[in-house]
């Protein structure tokens, strides 16, 4: 393999201070960062002041969408069960892993129960051997505490993190919104925001008893964040994620009955949104993910309560997340810890950093490039984004996978 020198950029390396300079790639891996001697014959890429960062590791997509991931700087996708595949058998795990392309690697997340039905524990050991990087409850909460306890114990025994959906299904079964003024005014079936905290509290106790690591795919309420903070203070192996939708939108976005804003969990109050931003700032939130779940017209062109929840998030993840840097909530290095290093750690994969000898999966980002999110121009399988029409800044300029430039 050849040698590539990326020059004249700004490094956003998780866990390190920002630095001017570049990255030297040799034999598909990072050989040096910052200032270095350029080997004779090296291919040179002039970053021209762009941000040089590890490619994104997206923890929690429900579909493999190569074009959308490529546009958003995503090189690794953790595919969740219950979307494009049940992921509850070893053969399905192998098939999902084989869906990778030159630009993305697919890391299947096995269903914790067969069919994600919440009753019969799946063959986690066999699926781990087939390539599963974690196990998950999928789109649902496991209502039976005995089943959830066994799932956590089995996952922990196989060295896998359990990724949980945190909503008490008894409260949210028919809900399409969070209970409050907006849901009442619109006449939408709703559930109290405490459904999240109830689920988190139970699952934290079960995980502690089982000695298992647990990751809550999305935490979106102030009460939920308080529970996560307390568990971390106790030293419990817990982490949590969120999507840009719950960081930048509140339930006011439902006001025109736009089904693109029908999400799971539903959008919360403005107070909870502010609590989410604070949780990013203080490190309570470990991961920002796309929640990528493209839905076609047959799922979204329906009355709000009858439409399917979900959004196309891969293509817009990078640009929206960069807003946290401009608002000085996180540093560039801190942002890519949330987008790359932390999700890679949870999945146990070698990715997400600019450390010496790390795989050379690198993106160059023009932070100031302006554009407008337009559902009609998205390359995703479907354009169901609640951010349609929003002006944003930040574009992928260049991507390198395994030491090879993709364009």
Index terms:
29% helix, 407 residues, globular, 13 helices, eight-stranded parallel β-sheet, alpha/beta
Question: Could you describe the 3D structure shown?
Answer:
By secondary structure, the chain is an alpha/beta fold. 29% of the residues lie in helices and 23% in strands. The protein has helices at residues 66-71, 90-97, 124-130, 145-157, 169-172, 181-186, 194-210, 222-233, 244-248, 270-281, 297-300, 317-326, 332-347; strands at residues 3-11, 19-26, 29-34, 43-46, 51-54, 56-61, 74-79, 105-111, 134-136, 162-164, 177-178, 190-191, 214-216, 238-242, 287-288, 362-372, 391-401, 404-405. Strands 1, 2, 3, 4, 5, 16, 17 and 18 form an 8-stranded mixed β-sheet that branches. It is globular.
Summarize the structure.
The protein is an alpha/beta fold.
Sheet with most strands = 8 strands, mixed
Mean of all residue-level pLDDT scores? 95
Shape: globular
Helix content: 25-40%
Distance between the termini: 17 Å
Strand content: 15-25%
Q: What's the β-strand tally? A: 18
Whole-angstrom Rg: 21 Å
**Count of DSSP-assigned helices:** 13
Sequence stretches where pLDDT stays below 50 over 5 or more residues: none
- Could you say which structural class the secondary elements and strand pairing correspond to? alpha/beta
List the helices and strands and how they pair.
Layout lengths: L2 E9 L7 E8 L2 E6 L8 E4 L4 E4 L1 E6 L4 H6 L2 E6 L10 H8 L7 E7 L12 H7 L3 E3 L8 H13 L4 E3 L4 H4 L4 E2 L2 H6 L3 E2 L2 H17 L3 E3 L5 H12 L4 E5 L1 H5 L21 H12 L5 E2 L8 H4 L16 H10 L5 H16 L14 E11 L18 E11 L2 E2 L2
Parallel strand pairs: 1-4, 1-5, 6-7, 7-8, 8-9, 9-10, 10-13, 11-12, 13-14, 14-15
Antiparallel strand pairs: 1-2, 2-3, 5-16, 16-17, 17-18
Helix pairs in contact: 2-3, 4-7, 7-8
């Amino acid at each position: 393999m050849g040698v590539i020198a990326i020059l004249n950029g700004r490094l956003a390396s998780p866990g390190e201070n920002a630095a001017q300079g570049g990255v030297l790639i040799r034999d598909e891996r990072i050989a040096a960062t910052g200032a270095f001697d350029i080997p004779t014959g090296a291919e040179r890429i002039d970053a021209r002041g762009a941000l040089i960062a590890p490619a994104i590791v997206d923890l929690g997509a429900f579909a493999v969408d190569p074009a959308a991931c490529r546009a958003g700087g995503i090189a690794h996708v953790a595919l969740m069960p219950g979307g494009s595949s049940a992921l509850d058998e070893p053969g399905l795990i192998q098939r999902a892993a084989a869906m990778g392309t030159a630009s993305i690697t697919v890391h299947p997340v096995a269903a914790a129960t067969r069919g994600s039905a919440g009753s019969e524990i799946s063959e986690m050991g066999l699926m781990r051997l087939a390539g599963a990087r974690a196990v998950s409850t999928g789109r649902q909460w496991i209502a039976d505490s005995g089943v959830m306890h066994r799932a956590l114990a089995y996952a922990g025994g196989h060295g896998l993190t359990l990724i949980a959906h945190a909503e008490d299904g008894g409260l949210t079964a028919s809900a399409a919104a969070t209970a409050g003024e907006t849901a009442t005014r619109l006449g939408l079936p709703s559930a109290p925001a405490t459904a999240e905290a109830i689920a988190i509290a139970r699952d934290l106790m079960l995980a502690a008893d089982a000695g298992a690591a647990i990751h809550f795919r999305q935490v979106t309420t102030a009460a939920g964040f308080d529970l996560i903070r307390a568990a971390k203070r106790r030293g419990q192996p817990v982490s949590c994620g969120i999507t840009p939708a719950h960081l930048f939108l509140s339930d006011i976005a439902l006001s025109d009955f736009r089904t693109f804003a029908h999400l799971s969990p539903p959008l919360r109050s403005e107070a909870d949104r502010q609590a989410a931003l604070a949780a990013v700032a203080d490190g309570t939130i470990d991961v920002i993910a796309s929640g990528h779940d493209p839905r076609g017209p047959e799922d979204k062109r329906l009355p709000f309560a009858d439409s399917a929840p979900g959004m196309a998030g891969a293509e817009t993840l990078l640009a929206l997340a960069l807003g946290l840097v401009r608002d000085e909530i996180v540093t560039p290095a801190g942002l890519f810890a949330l987008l790359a290093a932390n999700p890679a750690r949870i999945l146990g994969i070698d990715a997400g950093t600019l450390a010496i000898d790390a795989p050379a999966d690198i993106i160059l980002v023009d932070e100031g490039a302006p554009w407008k999110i337009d559902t009609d121009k998205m390359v995703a399988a479907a354009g169901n984004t609640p951010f349609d029409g929003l002006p944003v800044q930040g574009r992928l300029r260049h991507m390198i996978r395994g030491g090879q430039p993709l364009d």
